[in-house]
Amino acid sequence: MKPEYVGTSYIETYLYGVDERHPAAAKTVGGGSLYALVPGKGILVHLEPGNILHTYVQLNCTAE
């Protein structure tokens, strides 16, 4: 089976030391998670142990 692009891409990132280095993001997410979703795109964030925000940006777009 050959992999093929189906139209959704994810960008994953981590923000470390969020209380000190990214206080606005830490306040926005709080102690749990945040989902900002609209058709075709979204931002998903959750707080992990160690004061880390684990973030995904999701986009639906063509391969081009």
What does this molecule look like?
By secondary structure, this protein is an alpha+beta fold. Helices cover 17% and strands 50% of the residues. The protein has two helices and four strands. It has helices at residues 18-21, 23-29; strands at 8-16, 33-38, 41-48, 52-60. It has a four-stranded antiparallel β-sheet, covered by helices on one side. β2 (33-38) and β3 form a beta hairpin. The mean pLDDT is 94.
Give structural attributes.
64 residues; alpha+beta; four-stranded antiparallel β-sheet; 2 helices; 4 strands
Distance between the termini: 22 Å
* Mean of residue pLDDT values: 94
- The amount of beta strand, in percent, is over 45%
Question: Runs with pLDDT <50, length 5+?
Answer: none
What is the H-and-E element order?
Answer: EHHEEE
Helix percentage: 10-25%
Count the E strands: 4
Can you summarize this structure?
The chain is an alpha+beta fold and 64 residues long. The protein has helices at residues 18-21, 23-29, and strands at 8-16, 33-38, 41-48, 52-60.
